[in-house]
Design brief:
The complex is a heterodimer of chains A (120) and B (109).
Chain A: E1 3-6, E2 10-12, E3 18-25, E4 34-39, E5 45-52, E6 57-60, E7 69-73, E8 78-83, E9 92-99, E10 107-110, E11 114-118
Parallel strand pairs in A: 2-11
Antiparallel strand pairs in A: 1-3, 3-8, 4-5, 4-9, 5-6, 7-8, 9-10, 9-11
Chain B: E1 9-12, E2 18-23, E3 35-40, E4 47-50, E5 64-69, E6 72-77, E7 86-93, E8 98-100, E9 104-108
Parallel strand pairs in B: 1-9
Antiparallel strand pairs in B: 2-6, 3-4, 3-7, 5-6, 7-8, 7-9
Classes of the chains: A mainly beta (120), B mainly beta (109).
């Protein structure tokens, strides 16, 4: 069974750094792109970026370029999303998902989501 | 980049058909065949319903179908059922990155 398991909920203060994770299993982790999607409280989905774990090729949405860093560790089948300085507006649920199409918009399956709360 | 435009809500009675539109531009929906649709129930992760405009992943009922014409993609749910009540999002490739629609709430009357 293809599965993506994300790290647990985080509560951070503005200005702090954070890295959340997404561990894949049940498929060839290095051979398919993994993406990250943000969902702010009560809002819609936002495409953040994707990474190809095989060679760490990464693409970002212009809205998130420079705001977050996406990385992957082939040895542990884990993708990461990180912030160097969190803001209150980063409060959201973050999902990782594997892509199944060539346009990086067909995501299946999805991780369970990681709730990040940034508050002073 | 701007989000794709979807109606805020659509509704229908059980057994009826509803269609959700997803309006983009010639730089995203109009240019590429990479359009997907997601269903999201409250408190749950999204679920892929359609990809590559009209392909259904294994396990998705054939009541769900996708299409595209020009800069607008559409998701049709035929034979509406109570469990179809959820939020639906479209997503399109826009050249090196993707963009989601704002979401549509489907209500089963």
């Amino acid at each position: 069974e293809v599965q993506l398991v994300q790290s647990g909920a985080e509560v951070k203060k503005p200005g702090e750094s954070l890295r959340i994770s997404c561990k894949g299993s049940g498929y060839s982790f290095t051979s398919q792109w993994i993406g990250w999607v943000r969902q702010m409280p009560g809002k819609g989905l936002e495409w953040m970026g994707i990474i190809y774990p095989g060679d760490s090729d990464t693409r970002y949405s212009p809205s998130f370029q420079g705001q977050v860093t996406i990385s992957a560790d082939k040895s542990t089948n884990t993708a990461y999303l990180q912030w160097s300085s969190l803001k209150a507006s980063d409060t959201a649920i973050y999902y990782c998902a594997r892509t199944v199409d060539s346009g990086y918009v067909g995501f299946d399956p999805w991780g369970q989501g990681t709730l990040v709360t940034v508050s002073s | 980049q701007s989000a794709l435009t979807q109606p805020r809500s659509v509704s229908g009675s059980p057994g009826q058909s509803v269609t959700i539109s997803c309006s983009g531009t010639s730089s995203d929906v109009g240019r590429y065949i990479f359009v997907s649709w997601y269903q999201q129930h409250p408190g749950k992760a999204p679920k892929l319903m359609i990809y590559d405009v009209n392909k259904r992943p294994s396990g998705v009922p054939d009541r769900f179908s996708g299409s595209k014409s020009g800069n607008t993609a559409s998701l049709t749910i035929s034979g509406l059922q109570a469990e179809d009540e959820a939020d639906y999002y479209c997503c399109s490739y826009a050249g090196r990155y993707g963009v989601f629609g704002g979401g549509t709430k489907v209500t089963v009357l």
